[in-house]
Design a protein that fits this description.
Shape: elongated
Number of strands: 0
Radius of gyration: 66 Å
Structural class: mainly alpha
Distance between the termini: 188 Å
Helix content: over 70%
Number of helices: 22
Order of helices and strands: HHHHHHHHHHHHHHHHHHHHHH
């Protein structure tokens, strides 16, 4: 017990226990580890003396460190004193500057206000400058642009751009009137003057170009077309240029036409074929059609509107009318062959139908061609009737068979040639063909009637039927003859009805059929006997002249019509009381029909 108490009260023991209980791990007690490292650096040799002097060494080291720290803080203090003095000096300087600035501010207040005012005015000036720039860009024409509008040689594409800009400025000025009427009116007046100058320049240049359009194959330049399209805004100037174009092209086209007629262009002269009227007229009108189409293409590429093209082309081709009229009139007047005249008419009608769409129905040349066709057809009908009259004057009597006479056959041949010519025409309208058919068929019918008047009435009817049949058969092979065929059929029907009645009367006469009030049994027996004799050879009942009908169809029609009438009469006699007639109507019908 005394030993344990001594241990507990021994300071050295307690220190040892404390040291031994310390945790010297660096992770758990880094400060202790660091202190031990510093202490180990002071001990060079671990001996008793060193251990005894360790405390003193540590205290001396602590004192030395404290002195070093004091020295360093003294330096910091000196620096802070220096900084304080400089800050104080700076403070004094700032106060002085502030005072000076306050003084300057009070002195510069007016200048600042003036500067602010100038700055605000500068902003307004910039806005006004921008507005002036915009107005200048929209309403101002430069001197170089003005000079361009007055220079016509050479005319450049930039001319149209400047002119368009002048028009736009003039149009925009109308909106400016509401804001500044005076300025707007001045600008509009200036632009109007510039436009007048530009249009005058353009008109002068265009007139010169129009006068140079004299070649056989003219070409419409883009500049010229643009110029005329622009001049269309000024009708008076455009009309002057259009008149110059038509005048120049009219003279050029007439010169080309005369040269083609007399000298030829790329071939022989057209007038060298004047001995052949059909070819001459065809070549002449073909030249007209070809060159009018060329002129129209040229005017389409040159002029802006369809109305101007039609007007100009009509005026250009009018220069050819006199020459065409003289030559075609001369050909028509000196042609005596009606077929040739009809061919010429077909050519005129064809080229009229092709030229008219290129010009207009009121074009003088189209009107002339229609008039020439009318004269040609009048000459044709006159010559045709003359030929028929000459054939009629021959006074050929029909032969015993009553077929058409030689003169009539020649007339029918002429009619066939006329019909062939008409049917080959692609331009003649159906209505015109009907009029021509009337003009060529009716004279032959009249000729037939005049010849037939020299025969007895029955033979006259047979002859007329044979001629009408020939005409009907001929016309039925051609198109567009329905109207005339119907007229001929009506005449044939009337003639055949009369011949049928004559045939019926002839049958009654041969059989001696009694009158309705004289039908005694004795007379009826005689009718029965004669009828049986006549039916044994039906040729005995034929009217002899009816066998001269050239058409088997018409002979059958006449016989069936007459037989039908007789059967109707026989039926009424058979139905009378007494039973004298033994053959029934059906038996008679089988024998007759």
């Amino acid at each position: 017990m005394p030993v344990a108490a001594e241990v507990e009260t021994n300071p050295l023991s307690r220190k040892l226990e404390k040291v031994l209980s310390l945790n010297i791990s660096q992770s758990e007690n880094p400060d202790l580890v660091l202190a031990l490292k510093n202490v180990s650096g002071l001990i060079k040799c671990n001996n008793l003396r060193t251990r005894r002097s360790l405390r003193g060494d540590l205290e001396r080291r602590s004192v030395q460190l404290s002195e070093n720290l004091v020295d360093q803080f003294r330096k910091v203090h000196d620096l802070m004193e220096t900084l304080h003095s400089e800050v104080s000096s700076m403070y004094v300087s700032c106060n002085e500057l502030s005072s000076e600035l306050s003084t300057a501010r009070s002195q510069m207040q007016g200048l600042l206000e003036k500067t602010s005012k100038i700055r605000r005015e500068s902003v307004h000036v910039e806005i006004k400058k921008d507005m002036v720039d915009v107005l200048q860009s929209r309403f101002y024409i430069t001197p170089s642009e003005m000079s361009l509008l007055g220079r016509s040689d050479p005319l450049e594409l930039s001319f149209y751009k400047v002119l368009q800009r002048v028009k736009q400025v003039h149009e925009d000025s109308k909106a400016l009137i509401q804001m500044d009427q005076g300025t707007a009116l001045r600008i509009m007046d200036q632009m109007s003057t510039l436009q007048d100058t530009a249009f005058h320049t353009l008109h002068k240049w265009s007139m010169g170009e129009c006068r140079r359009m004299t070649s056989d194959m003219p070409e419409a330049s883009g500049m010229c077309k643009e110029a005329l399209a622009t001049l269309a805004e000024r009708p008076a100037l455009f009309s002057a240029c259009l008149g110059e174009v038509t005048k120049t092209r009219r003279a050029a086209l007439l010169r080309m036409f005369i040269n083609s007629l007399t000298k030829g262009s790329g071939g022989k002269a057209i007038e060298l074929s004047s001995h052949d009227p059909v070819r001459y007229c065809g070549d002449l009108l073909a030249w007209l059609h070809q060159n009018i189409a060329t002129e129209r293409d040229f005017l389409v590429n040159l002029l802006p509107t369809t109305g101007d093209i039609a007007t100009a082309l009509t005026t250009v081709v009018e220069g050819l009318c006199r020459t065409v009229q003289v030559r075609v009139d001369q050909i028509i007047s000196h042609t005596g062959d009606c077929i040739t005249l009809l061919n010429i008419s077909n050519i005129i009608v064809f080229y009229t139908s092709t030229i008219e769409p290129l010009t207009s129905d009121t074009c003088e040349l189209v009107v002339l061609l229609k008039d020439l066709n009318k004269r040609c057809m009048e000459q044709f009908h006159t010559q045709y009737k003359t030929n028929i009259s000459k054939l009629t004057e021959r006074q050929d009597l029909p032969l015993e068979d009553l077929v058409p006479t030689e003169a009539t056959q020649e007339a029918v041949y002429l009619l066939r040639e006329v019909l062939n010519t008409i049917s080959s025409s692609v331009a003649t309208e159906t209505q015109n063909k009907s009029q021509i058919f009337d003009g060529v068929v009716d004279p032959i019918v009249g000729m037939c009637s005049m010849i037939a008047t020299q025969l007895d009435p029955t033979r006259e009817m047979i002859y007329r039927v044979n001629v009408l049949t020939t005409l009907h058969d001929l016309l039925s092979t051609y198109p567009d003859t329905d109207g005339k065929l119907e007229s001929l059929q009506t005449k044939l029907s009337q003639e055949l009805e009369t011949i049928t009645n004559l045939q019926y009367d002839h049958i009654l006469k041969k059989i001696s059929v009694p009158a309705p009030g004289d039908c005694t049994p004795e007379r009826l027996r005689q009718v029965q006997a004669r009828l049986s004799d006549g039916l044994c050879g039906s040729e005995m009942l034929w009217l002899p002249v009816c066998t001269r009908l050239t058409s088997l169809k018409h002979r059958n029609t006449v016989w069936q019509g007459a037989a039908g009438q007789f059967l109707h009469l026989y039926t009424s006699l058979w139905q009378q009381p007494g039973g004298v007639l033994t053959k029934t109507p059906d038996q008679i019908r089988q024998l007759l029909i």
